[in-house]
Amino acid sequence: MSLPVTRRSRLRDLLATPVGRDATDKVVLFSGVPAWVPRLVGGLRLDTLDRLVRPIVGEGLVDALIGLANAGLGSAAQDEPSAGEREPVTGPQPWWRSAVFAQVYPRSFADSNGDGIGDLRGIIDHLDHFTDLGVDALWLSPVFDSPNRDMGYDVRDYRAVMAEMGTLDDLDELIAGCHRRGLRIVLDLVVNHTSTEHRWYQKALADPDSAERGYYFFRDGNASQPPNNWNSFFSGPAWRWEPSANAWALHLFDQNQVDLNWDNPAVRREVADIVGWWLDRGVDGFRLDVINYISKQPGLPDGHPFVGRLFGFTGIEHYFHGPMLHEHLAALRRDGFTRPDGTTAVMIGETPGIGIETGRLLSGAGRGELDLVFNFDALETPGHTRWDDYRYNLGHLVDFWLDYNARVTDDWVALFLENHDNPRMVSKVAGQRAADPAVRVRVARLLATLLLTMRGTPFLFQGQELGAVNEPFRGIDDLRDVESLNRYAELVAGGMPAAKAWRQVLAGSRDHARTPIRWTEHQDDSSRWLRGHDRTPGFSVEAQRDDPRSVLAWYRALLALRRAHLALATGDIECVHRSRDLVAWLRSSPDETWLVEANLGGRVRRRPRLGVAAVEVLATTTGGDAARLAPWSAVISRLR
Ligand code: ISL
Ligand code: CA
Question: Is residue 132 in some structural domain?
Fold first, then answer.
C-alpha cells in the first residue's frame, strides 16, 4: 500500500505515483521543459517546491498535483500490485492482442443511396475491402440515433440507428456480414454525455423531481454566473443555462452534449443495460468515448489557472482521472461487458489526457477494467498542439511506443496514427512535400511499416490504407466540424485576423480525416455532406487495387506477413538501434526473429551496422542498398 503524498513528501515521491509520473511527463510534453529537470530536483520537499513555483504559477498547483497523485489511492487502483508485481499474460492471448482493427467513419465511408451521406448499406457493400486488406475487426464510429451536432457523438437514442445511416435491420445485416467473413465488429459507445434531445434530458428539464434530473449535472444559480470556471473542448464555458429549469447544466463538449452523472447508480445501470442489449445482437465489444472523463471531482471545484493554461482546458484536473473512475469501469465490465458464459466483450477506452502510467492502471489483464486504452501523447511532439502547423518528427512516435512497450506487463498497447479527430499523418510528416505523389506513397508506406511491425494492437483509420493526406480546404465554409467552426469563431471574436485564424484551424481541423473515401478516380463528391478536394491521380481504391507499388498493396503485404508470422504480432520487441532519424528493432517469438530497420527522415541515411545475418523479405522502396536507407523508408528482414 503506497502512502499518500503530502506537502512534506519529496518531489520524487510524487513522481513515483503513476499519476504523478504522468503529470510530470505531461508538463514536459506540453511545456517542452527538458525531461531531466524534474528528476534533478527530486529531493525537493513539496512545500518548498510550492514556495518556489508560487510566484510563477500562482497558488494551489502543488496541491492540485498532490490531489491528482492521491486520486486513485484508496480506490482499488493504486492498491493493486505495483508495476514490478504485474506479470505478463502467459497462455492463450485474447483475440484483440493479435488483431488489427480498421476504424470506419460511416458518414464518409460509402454512400449507397446518393443522398451525400455515407451509410450502413455502403459498408455492407464494401465489406470485402476489409477482408482483401487483411484486417480482423472493424470499429464503427457512432451510428446510433443522433441530431448530429457532433456527427453522432451526441446520442438521442442508444437502441436506434441514425435514420441517415439506415435501420436496425441494416446493422444486424452488417454484423452478420462481418461474422460470416471472420471479421469482428465493435461499435462506439458515447456515454460520458448524451444529446440534449435524449428523452432522459428532456424529462429532466420538464420535471425537476424526475429521476432523470439526477442523471445530469444541474446546478441552480443565475444566468450571469456559471457554477465554475471549466471551459468546453469546443470553445466557451462548459455550462449551458436552461431558463425552463432555472439552472445550469454541465457540458464538456458541445452545448448539445450534456454530461451524465455516473456517480448516480441509475445512470450506470442504464449504460450496462445498453451494452448488454447490443452484445445480445452480436456486437463483439465497444470503443468507449472519452471514458476517462466519467468521474468528476465532487463539488466540481474551479480548475487551477496554470493547469488550464498548460493543457488548454480549465478544470481538466478535476475530471480526467476522477476519484470513482476505476470503480465505475470495473462495474461496467462486470455488469455490462461480462457475458452469461463468463466471457467478456472487448472494452477499448478512448482516454484523452491520460499518460502511460494512468493508462496502465486503467487497462491490463489483472485490473478488471478496460482491455485497451487510446493514449494521445504520441500524436504531437513536445511543445506542440494539433493547431500548430509544424513537421511532425517520427522519432517521437517510435520513442513513445518503445517506452510504452518497455513498461508493459499484463497490459497491452493500442497503436494508432490517425482517427476521425486528427489530421492525416502523411501530411503532418511531409507537409507540402506530400504534394509529390512519390513522397506521399513513400511516407505512407513507412507509416504502415512502423504501425504494423510495432508490438501492440494496431488501429487503421479509413483512407490511411490509400495514403490519404490533408484536404486543401479553401475557407471556413468548406468545414462542417463543430470544434473547428467554434474555434474559428472564438479566435476571430477574440480579435485574431481572419486569415491567421483560418491558418490555425486549417492546420488542426478534424475535417481532414472526415472527407469521403475515394473509391474511384473520378468520383463525384459534389453532393457529399463534406467535400473532399484532393484529386491527385492514383490514390483511389480503383487506382490502387491492382497496382503492386501502391500504398494499398503495401498494407495488404504487411497484413499478410503479420498474419503468417505471430512474432510480428505478439512477439517480444527489442530496440537494437536508435539514432537521429534511424531506428531498428527485433520482433521475436520462440521460433523466429524479424528485424525492422527504418529511416524516419527525408534524407538518405547510412544503414546501422547491426552485425546480424538477415534475409530481406519486404522493403518499402526499391533502390535502397546494403549500406544506405532511402529517405522515409523501411526494410523488414528475417534473421537466419
Ligand atoms: O483530440 C481531442 C482532444 O485532444 C479532441 O478532438 C477530442 O475531443 C477528444 O479526443 C474526445 O473525442 C471524442 O469525444 C468527442 C467527439 O467529438 C470526438 O469525435 C470523439 O472521438 C465528444 O464526444
Ligand atoms: Ca447515404
Answer: no
Exposed/middle/buried for 287, CB within 10 Å: 0-12, 13-18, 19+? buried
Are 401 and 122 spatial neighbours (Cβ–Cβ below 8 Å)? no
Give dist(CA 439, CA 614) in Å, integer. Answer: 28
Q: Which helix (H) or strand (E) holds 374?
A: strand 372-374
Q: Which of 287, 331, 322 is nearest to 152 (CA)?
A: 287
Three-state DSSP at 355 gives: coil
Closest atom of ligand 1 to 233 CA is: 8
Closest residue (by CA) to atom 1 of ligand 1? Answer: 421
CA 237 to chain centre: 24
Sign of the alpha-carbon dihedral angle for 621, 554, 580, 468:
positive
3-state secondary structure of 585: strand
Residue 609 lies in a domain: yes
Single out the catalytic residue among 145, 164, 254, 289: 289
pLDDT tens digits, residue range 439-492? Answer: 999 999 999 999 999 999 999 999 999 999 999 999 999 999 999 999 999 999
Query: Which one of the ligands is nearest to 320 CA?
Result: 1
Q: Which domain holds residue 600?
A: 566-639
Domain-located, residue 500: no
Does residue 108 sit within a domain? Answer: no
Catalytic residue among 22, 350, 380, 471: 350
The minimum-distance atom of ligand 1 relative to the CA of 252 is 22
Q: Residue 244: which CATH number?
A: 3.90.400.10
Catalytic residue status for 289: yes
Q: Of 57, 74, 91, which marks where a domain is finished?
A: 74
Q: SS3 string of 277-323?
A: HHHHCCCCEEEECCHHHCCCCCCCCCCCHHHHHHHCCCCHHHCCCCC
Q: Residue 574: which CATH number? A: 2.60.40.1180
Residue 132, classified by CB atoms within 10 Å of its CB into exposed (0-12), middle (13-18) or buried (19+), is: middle
Res 612 pLDDT > 80: yes
Q: Whose CA is nearest to atom 10 of ligand 1?
A: 352
Q: What angle do CA 154, 160, 165 make, to 5 degrees?
A: 75
459 near 142, Cβ under 8 Å? no
**pLDDT of the residue at 11:** 85
How many whole angstroms separate alpha carbon 560 and alpha carbon 299? 53
- Predicted model pTM: 0.96
6's CB contacts (< 8 A; 6+ apart) are 46, 66
- Residue pair 49/41 in contact (Cβ under 8 Å)? The answer is yes
Q: For the chain, how many structural domains are there in total?
A: 3
Among 148, 286, 289, 461, residue to substitute to test ligand 1 (most atoms within 8 Å of Cβ): 289
CA separation (Å) from 535 to 400, 521, 524, 552, 574? 34, 8, 10, 17, 41
Pocket of ligand 1 (CB under 6 A): 150, 153, 190, 233, 253, 289-290, 350, 352, 376, 420-421
Angle at 375 between CA 58 and CA 385, to 5 degrees: 55
**Cell of residue 539, nine digits:** 490514390
| pLDDT more than 90, % of the chain | 79
Grid cell listed for 30: 506540453
